[in-house]
Amino acid sequence: MMTLLAGLTGMAVFLACFLVIRMVIKAVISRNLIFVVKKYSETLHAGTLHTGNIVPPFNNIRIVCVALFVFIAVFLVRDVLLGIPFVLAGIIIPGRIKKILLDKKREKIDGQLVDFLGGLANSISAGGTLMQAINTASGKALPPLSAELAEVIREVRLGVSIDVALNSMSGRIGSSELNIAVVSMNVARQFGGNLASNLTGIVRTMRERKKLKNRIKALTSQGQLSAWTITLTPFLILVVLSLMEPAMFGIMFRTVAGKLILLSAMGMAALGNYIIMKIVTIEV
């Protein structure tokens, strides 16, 4: 039982090391490490996330995560060298949580844009203004898009121009497809043109892009699965060897040289995983 617990603990330690090393490698390779750290600090300091009525206090989450992982490093791992990745994980995880929430929100809104823009085009074709069309679409839309549209309507009622309100919504969401639609609306308002026809064309393009994305996702899913299978295999071997030969393989956990070798192996695995995922990830 103790041998099994030791093996699982070792696997958890090196999984944490792998994830932290992979995130650092991603930042370094993209040549944005300083920028990422700066933006990470700024976004956490802001402490807000527009997700409808939910505003998670990310500064508090960061403090709790750091405290939790320091506790794990000090009282469970009880090793300075292997405890460092846990402390780093506690610092990085809140930012990752925020990014995941923002990405999920963006995906939901992108999925609602086709119906939303189609409704705008129909309302404008029927003779309504852009603001009237947005009011109508806001009542029919579902969260999180409805919350963003309500924010646009509130800003316009407070005296903000509709162009600025739409640009603000596009900036909050960060969706390239929404940005294209907003630019089209602003250009049509300022310089004239058939806005309904433009929106209909954008909707048609979005549908085609969605089909292409789904096809690419299906074609690259096998490569992504292979990447994670190859990456996680060493961790399984680590547990098996710890159970089969605890006395001999335990040296890797007890000596500084063994720990450095394992951490180096985790670094190479993280680098390989990052490279494979970059190859099989295609942006549309």
Structure, briefly:
The chain has helices at residues 2-29, 33-46, 58-77, 80-125, 130-140, 145-157, 162-173, 176-191, 195-244, 246-249, 251-254, 256-280.
Separate helix tally: 12
Do you know the CATH architecture of the domain at 108-205? Up-down Bundle
What is the CATH domain class of the domain at 108-205?
Answer: Mainly Alpha
Radius of gyration, whole Å: 25 Å
Share of residues in helices: over 70%
Query: What is the number of strand segments?
Result: 0
Oligomer category = single chain
Which percent range describes the beta-strand content? under 5%
Mean pLDDT: 75
Task: Report on the architecture of this protein.
With 284 residues, the protein is an all-alpha fold. It has a domain of 98 residues: Up-down Bundle (Receptor-associated Protein). Helix content is 86%, strand content 0%. The protein contains twelve helices and no strands. Helix 1 runs antiparallel to helix 9, helix 1 packs across helix 12 and helix 4 runs antiparallel to helix 9. The protein starts with a helix and ends with a helix. About 9% of the residues have low confidence.
Strand and helix layout:
Layout: H1 2-29, H2 33-46, H3 58-77, H4 80-125, H5 130-140, H6 145-157, H7 162-173, H8 176-191, H9 195-244, H10 246-249, H11 251-254, H12 256-280
